[in-house]
Design brief:
The complex is a heterodimer of chains A (248) and B (385). Chain A is built from 6 helices and 11 strands. Chain A is of the alpha/beta class. The longest helix of chain A has 17 residues. Chain A starts with a strand and ends with a helix. Chain B is globular. Chain B is of the alpha+beta class and 385 residues long. The longest helix of chain B has 37 residues. Chain B has 3 domains: 120 residues, Acyl-CoA dehydrogenase/oxidase, N-terminal domain (Butyryl-Coa Dehydrogenase, subunit A, domain 1); 112 residues, Butyryl-CoA Dehydrogenase, subunit A, domain 2 (Beta Barrel); 144 residues, Butyryl-CoA Dehydrogenase, subunit A, domain 3. The chains are: A alpha/beta (248), B alpha+beta (385). Chains A and B meet through helix 2 and helix 5 of A and helix 1 of B. Bound molecules: flavin-adenine dinucleotide. Flavin-adenine dinucleotide binds next to helix 4, strand 1, strand 3 and helix 10 of chain B.
Chain lengths: 248, 385
């Protein structure tokens, strides 16, 4: 089974993000970057499928040379090889989707995994765009997956419940929390990752179809109060709801 | 990032991975294991599965085949979160695996290293009730009986020696006299199941409470002569060399603990307000934190450099002593200041600062006290010549 996993390099969720001087990008200075947590789920699922069925897992990212580090992470987790579609910082989700689709057309994978979103820009567009360009079925926000031969059955999180969807391979799957528990790269695998191949191809630096005008950091206003569960705390809660919040 | 200076891409990835593992797997369990004084087989085996046991041992013996810097980074990142788990890893690698890997015969390496890198633990029995700093006062003796050796005596404070995962310990014993009249020492590999040998866990420690510390008793304990580590008479030399390298792992524990206490203190000081201001804006506190940051930077630079010397096979007796001394005293200062900055809360078990404060103390005592490190350094710089 040949599996393609699309991954991205995102600022660590614990990093304090600062907006660059242009007012519409993240200032990369002092930011620690990680493999997008949803992509870790996607990669883990791919690795488990390979462990069950044999085959090959290719990790791919569209981005600048810095993204090599993120690919190495995927290789340390267990991907067999990696592809860097190298170019400028991608302009928007569409340009990433086109670049990924170009590679997928050549590779013809049995299944393509992505995270349901990347935690930097949260556009949530990529999995569906990619499937559309490739003309493949797409199941998004998957929290449980079973692939048996070419039959695919997936559980999706929907507001307040679950939905079970089926399709056949080849298809595009986007991963949601709960799908699995991603493994940590083991020390020997970190060393081996250095020896695995990373192929570099040039990206089509497409004109963007959407443009970012402005970024803002939400105002920090702390209104939360934390109370315990003693009788006095409960009394305090009632008083606060009554006098401060005026809801009861 | 300043903490990554001079590290390779793999070493940085390793640091990030171990940090994540420590935060996600160890941190949630640390307080309770400390409270219950409980050694965790489960976490130990998970750490083994990650490849922490035998980090610097080549792959053909089951190790991870990493350099010394990588091993030290692993210990540092573990100690940043919890000293007990870091101690299990540091002692098993530096004191358990180290002597067998560096001094064992090929047969001994093939027999033990694959086991010790896949879930079994090994102790290093040097200290005795009357021989700590003064290792020359070792009373445990072994005499030859046919093809066997009979060991009598006892050891104390031996890390990892009596867990249910423990296979055995390396034990230093007096085996006679050298031609110049001084005692001759030999190291024996003693498995826990050997008749006449008993390993007993020591309880009620102030610190490293989730790490196993044991007393060993040898009562006509009989081992075959192929259980001599390396050659008869090499014991003292093996011990000194083991301690040289072992000190780097204690230094890593000091650096990691200091970083953990510092991170904790900075976060707290920025959140806690008195008299209408964050306490981090009072110079009495901010200068404490600045001083620790200075120490962390200097310690990190120096320790990694000494690891690189070790990787190149250079002698590190003096540098190892300096690193161990400096990092353990830095940990002492950082943990103390962290508690001070947290006021009364720093004294409560609910906060990790309290555990950091207790855990740091062993670093100024184990593998040679701070006084002994100063003795080593002052001798090498020629004070007593
Ligand atoms: C939790 C724990 C784990 C340990 N793990 C191990 C292990 O795995 N294997 C092992 O072999 N040992 C281990 N040890 C033992 C440890 O290495 C010793 O405790 C240490 O070397 C000090 O020896 P001591 O306790 O006998 O103190 P002593 O040697 O009695 O020293 C007492 C005091 O006198 C000072 N002193 C002694 N001689 C001098 C001198 N010449 N000049 C100036 N001051 C001096 C010392 O610095 C110290 O302050 C462990 C100890 C602990 C607490």
């Amino acid at each position: 089974m040949n599996i393609l996993v699309c991954i991205s390099r995102v600022p660590d969720t614990a990093t304090k993000v600062i907006i660059g001087s242009d007012g519409k990008s993240i200032d990369p200075k002092g930011v620690k970057y990680i493999l997008n947590p949803y992509d870790e789920l996607a990669l883990e699922e791919a690795l488990r499928l390979r462990e069950k069925n044999g085959g090959n897992v290719t990790a791919i990212t569209v981005g600048t040379a810095e993204a090599t580090e993120t690919l190495r992470n995927a290789l340390a987790m267990g991907a067999d090889n990696a592809v860097l579609v190298k170019g400028d910082e991608p302009a928007d989700s569409y340009s990433v989707a086109v670049n990924l689709a170009d590679y997928a057309k050549k590779m013809n994978p049995d299944v393509i995994f992505l995270g349901k979103q990347s935690v930097d820009f949260d556009s949530l567009q990529l999995p569906s765009m990619l499937a559309e360009i490739l003309g493949l079925p797409s199941i998004s926000v998957v929290s449980k997956l079973t692939i048996d031969g070419t039959n695919v059955s997936a559980e999706r999180d929907i507001e307040g419940g679950k939905e079970v969807v089926s399709t056949t391979l080849p298809c595009v799957i986007s991963a949601q929390k709960g799908l699995n528990d991603p493994r940590y790269p083991k020390l020997p695998d970190i060393m081996k990752a250095k020896k695995k191949p990373i192929e570099e191809i040039a990206s089509n630096n497409l004109d963007a179809r959407t443009v970012v005008h402005k970024m803002e950091i939400p105002l920090k206003e702390r209104k939360a109060k934390i109370l315990g569960d003693s009788v006095q705390d409960i009394e305090m809660l009632v008083t606060l709801l009554h006098e401060d919040a005026k809801v009861i | 990032m300043s903490i990554n200076r001079g590290l390779t891409e793999e070493q940085i990835m390793l640091r990030n991975t171990v940090r994540k593992f420590a935060e996600e797997v160890i941190k949630p369990a640390a307080r309770e294991l400390d409270e219950k004084e409980e050694f965790s087989n489960e976490i130990t085996l998970q750490m083994c599965d990650m490849g922490f046991m035998g980090a610097f041992v080549p792959e053909e013996y089951g190790g991870a085949g990493m350099d010394y810097v990588s091993y030290i980074l692993t210990v540092e990142e573990l100690a940043r979160v919890d000293s007990s788990q870091a101690a299990t890893v540091a002692a098993h690698n530096s004191l358990g695996i180290g002597p067998i890997y560096y001094f064992g015969s090929e047969e001994q390496r093939m027999q033990y290293l694959p086991l010790l890198t896949s879930g079994k633990l090994w102790g290093f029995g040097l200290t005795e009730p009357e021989a700590g700093s003064d290792a020359g006062n070792t009373k445990t003796r072994a005499y030859q009986n046919g093809d066997d050796w009979i060991i009598n005596g006892s050891k104390i404070f031996i890390t990892n020696a009596s867990t249910s995962l423990t296979l055995g310990s390396s034990v230093l014993a007096v085996t006679g006299q050298q031609p110049d009249g001084r005692k001759q020492y030999t190291t024996f590999l003693v498995e826990n199941t050997v008749p006449g040998f008993e390993a007993k866990a020591m309880k009620h420690k102030m610190l490293w409470r989730a790490s196993n510390t044991s007393e060993l008793y040898f009562n006509d304990c009989r081992v075959t002569s192929n259980m001599i580590l390396g050659k008869k008479g090499d014991g003292f030399k093996q011990m000194l060399s083991t301690l040289d390298k072992g000190r780097l792992s204690i230094a890593a524990m000091g650096l990691g603990l200091a970083q953990g206490a510092f991170d904790y203190a900075v976060e707290y000081a920025k959140k806690r307000h008195t008299f209408g201001r964050a306490i981090s804006t009072y110079q009495a506190n901010s200068f404490k934190l600045a001083d620790i940051e200075v120490g962390l930077n200097l310690a990190r630079n120096f320790l990694y450099e000494v690891c690189r010397m070790a990787d190149r096979g250079e002698n590190i007796t003096k540098e190892g002593a300096i690193a161990k001394l400096y990092c353990s005293e830095l940990a002492h200062k950082a943990a103390n200041d962290c508690v001070q900055i947290m006021g009364g809360y720093g004294l409560m078990k609910e906060y990790d600062a309290e555990r950091f404060y207790r855990d740091q103390k062993i670093l100024e005592i184990g593998e040679g006290t701070s006084e002994i490190q100063r003795l080593v350094i002052s001798r090498i710089i020629g004070c007593y010549d």
